[in-house]
Amino acid sequence: MVPFAPSKTQKVVHHGFTAKVGLVHIAFVSTELLPIYGQGALERLVRGWAKWIAQEHEVTLISIGQGVTEDYSGDLGDLRHIWASSPSDLAGICKTHHIDLCCVNNRPGWLHLTGTTPVLILHNFSTAWRLHRYPQQPVSPATKVIALSNALMFHAREVLGLNFEQLDMVYPFLDPAFLEGSTIFRKTKQGQLKLLFPNRIMYKKGVWATLDALDLIGGKVDIDFTLSLSPNPSDRHFTNLAIKRVNHTEHARLIRSVSHPYDLADLMLDYDGILMPSVEPEGFGLVAMEALSLGLPVVASNLGGLSHAVECGAIPIDPLHSPSFAKTLTDLGEIEQPIPEIKFIRENLCLERSAASLLSVLLRATQP
């Protein structure tokens, strides 16, 4: 599809659908949409889509929670941001601000609370972000649902029981920070390897599995873990245990996490490889694709959306098999090969294509 930024009277064609476009007020709803430190890829995606769509339509970001005091690590531009202390406040906010459509990220239980046209965007599987309660919070067959990967499309149909007609797939995008440079060749590295684990300190992200593998290596590899914590209180006990273990593991250390895309790209480029050893399926694995786009070796489990990264050149591992995981890490410095997928990744995961596809789906959802 050719990227476009529609005017207020332009016709949009998408999958055989044609509709006259008027000014639409779209809200994106999630738990935290302000650009603060320690966020993951979901928030970067939503803010990128929102800024692009706001060129022609009115856009509001709604964060559900109690607010934060941290300094922002980014700029919201002209986007309006509203805090809602509870999902039950959504209907009142939408009515007050004349919102036409709500894009709810990962929370099917909030759809009926918006008081307006809802669209569900699935960034992850039902085991994540409390989506295990999905069967008790069914989605109306008339509600549009957007999945961000083939794996999530399959999950939505086969596990969550959604019908094919209500499903659309919109691929995410890479921030321009990961589209610069011309690195297309992995070089061998002599001596000590320095690897980065850029994910949250959570069991499902493979922290424990990585430390188990590191214990078998015997000092040939250094691994830095970004100190990015889960916002879910139920994860706190494991997080504390994991932090203690990192602090007591030789050749492992915690570093401050970064959220601004250019800071993250600069951080990644200081390392010899990136680790994405999730032990549970990822929705898409955007960080892995970002690292591949920079020409960095990526070690990833082949689960869920991370299969996209493996198809594009990531090195697959079973993170729960410590001996083979450890061998992959020690062999990483011997890799020397071209990465032709970089051009494919950069051309297909661009903001214009992703946001235009998303906007087309959203505008169709507003049609009677």
UniProtKB/TrEMBL annotation:
Gene3D superfamilies found in the cross-reference section: Glycogen Phosphorylase B
GO molecular function: glycosyltransferase activity
InterPro entries to which the protein is assigned, alphabetical: Glyco_trans_1
Transmembrane segments: none
SUPFAM superfamilies: UDP-Glycosyltransferase/glycogen phosphorylase
Occurrences of domain Glycosyl transferase family (ranges): 189-313
Keywords recorded for this protein, A-Z: Transferase
Pfam family, any one: Glycos_transf_1
Highest taxon above the source species: Bacteria
Name of the protein in question: Glycosyltransferase involved in cell wall bisynthesis
Protein species of origin: Ferrithrix thermotolerans DSM 19514
